[in-house]
Write a structure and sequence with these properties.
By secondary structure, this protein is of the alpha+beta class. Helix content is about 15%, strand content about 35%. It has 5 helices and 11 strands, in the order E-E-H-H-E-E-E-E-H-E-H-H-E-E-E-E. An 11-stranded antiparallel beta sheet has the order 1-2-4-5-6-3-8-11-10-9-7. Helix 1 packs antiparallel against helix 4.
Length: about 260
């Protein structure tokens, strides 16, 4: 009889408070071609960031007790190669030196052979739950929840930042925000916007393995709201830009980049 071995996936910190999490790409996380979806990539990275904070005694319930929430603001991913089904991956993340109003966090994902798969830089806002006002990072640091980070590293991805919205964009898609789109903060989970953005793409672009994906969050889409997604593709440059809007204004902006033959 075949002997089966236990599979152990670790989570651990290094000496510089880098957080590392081992996992596998599961069937349900993949697109029809067997590769990790952008939606699941955002879920993985945001959940690992939350877990990092939790293990440093800054869990989401703890922050809520103190009237605070930390929300992702901007993402930039460089996809060196899409992780694929049944591939063991290691997600490395760490805080970088903060901006005045934003935490900065980097990610590197590799497989168990050391091949670099994904590089990312993300920014996060600290907000007052009741007023929804942004809290300067120095005020969060002054609370003494964690030691401020004063160093930064270079990462092989496009900097997060402003996405230039093209004129005369077309209506790509319209959808209603449903109950299953919401998370524990009561609004649309950040990873869902990646699913919305991909679903809105014209069919000829949905199976592309993009080289870069950027996502900026502006205003939370709430339960029952209609989200209209406008977009424009520049096939010469290999760039697709989308803007998601509700009646309250812009909800998100997304940028896809791919290699042009």
């Amino acid at each position: 009889m075949k002997k089966y071995e236990d599979t152990v996936y670790r989570q651990y910190f290094d000496d510089n408070l880098g957080f590392h999490s081992e996992t596998m790409v599961y069937f349900s996380q993949c697109t029809p071609d067997g590769y990790l979806s952008l939606y699941e990539l955002l879920k993985l990275t945001s959940d690992i960031a939350v877990e990092d904070f939790k293990q440093r005694n800054m869990s989401r319930p703890f922050l809520v007790e103190n009237g605070l929430a930390i929300l992702v603001s901007r993402d930039s991913f460089r996809l060196h190669r899409y992780p694929q089904e049944n591939e063991k991956i290691i997600i490395h993340t760490k805080e970088e030196k903060s901006e005045p109003l934003q935490f900065v966090r980097s990610f590197e994902i590799e497989n168990d052979s050391g091949e670099k798969l994904v590089s990312a830089l993300t920014s996060w806002l600290c907000v007052d739950i009741k007023s929804r006002r942004i809290i300067p990072i120095k005020k969060f640091d002054a609370l003494g929840f964690r030691k401020p980070v004063d160093s930064s590293s270079e990462h092989d991805c496009i900097p997060y930042g402003k996405i230039s919205i093209p004129e005369n964009a077309d209506l790509f898609d319209t959808r209603i925000i449903k109950f299953s789109d919401l998370d524990s903060n009561g609004h649309t989970n950040n990873a869902k916007y990646a699913a919305f953005a991909v679903d809105a793409l014209p069919p000829q672009f949905q199976s592309i393995h993009f080289s870069d994906f950027r996502l900026n969050f502006a205003k939370e889409a709430m339960l029952g709201q209609e989200l209209k997604i406008y977009g424009k593709a520049d096939t010469e440059k290999g760039i697709i830009i989308e803007t998601g809007k509700t009646d309250d204004g812009i909800s998100f902006e997304a940028e896809f980049r791919y290699k042009v033959n």
